[in-house]
Amino acid sequence: METRLTSALVIIPARLAATRLPRKPLLDICGKPMIVRVLEQAQNADIGPVAVACDDKDVAEAVQDHGGTAIMTRVDHASGSDRIYEAAGLVDPDEKHDVILNVQGDVPLIAPEAIRAAFAPLTVPGVAIGTIMTEFKGFEFRDDPNFVKAVTTPNGQGHHRALYFTRATAPSGDGPLYHHIGIYAYRRAALAKFVELPPSPLEIREKLEQLRALEAEMRIDVSIIDSAPMDVNTPDDLERARAAYRVS
């Protein structure tokens, strides 16, 4: 049995500090800061209001200058999940939205369809968190630990149920391998539970926050999308993103 979802509160966490790309959210991509490019793609997904959760006034001003909503949050959050939880309480204190969708702030090329795909698994009762993955098409990144693999099984309702996430190449044997993309749609109660949990043993071992949820028996289901959005972590990534916008 599926339920119908109509809207989510979309929150984009944005930390100004970055070692490889200083002041990353504010870097220019063809006339607009990166965080504004992500904001526009999230707005184009058309699943609900969008806010940027930031820890610096320069980021807030950049968002507001382009007509967006910025929420100032604490600077000492351990993770993006903690930041979006605080922001959700500030922007929607009456809890009108039952779903909080976390879109990373460094994916200026994220397609609106990919954002909607993360939202889709929550139509299945019992699913606490929705996310997305794409099939590895070649061998270039399959064995790279920086590309997280999702070990899943079809749920019979158009998505997959996550069994594990790992930096190793898994599962073994014949069949597709899937690259997990860190965009999450949380039921509000699930997000509240998640941020109260301590880091779990497998989370610490693999350095993957989503394992905390699985170890706490929170169900994560996954939609398959056609290709992975490029995140911007290096100067070369930034130039590729700029080139993509120039030709779009």
Features:
alpha/beta, 5-stranded mixed beta barrel, Spore Coat Polysaccharide Biosynthesis Protein SpsA, Chain A, 23% strand, two-stranded antiparallel ribbon
Model description:
There is one protein chain. The chain has helices spanning 34-45, 57-65, 80-91, 112-119, 188-196, 201-206, 210-215, 235-247, and strands at 9-14, 28-29, 32-33, 50-54, 69-72, 99-102, 129-135, 149-154, 160-166, 178-187, 220-224. It starts with 8 loop residues before the first strand and ends with a helix. With 248 residues, the chain is α/β, with parallel strands linked by helices. It has one domain (9-233): Spore Coat Polysaccharide Biosynthesis Protein SpsA, Chain A (Alpha-Beta Complex), CATH 3.90.550.10. The model has no long low-confidence stretch (mean pLDDT 94). The chain is 30% helix and 23% strand.
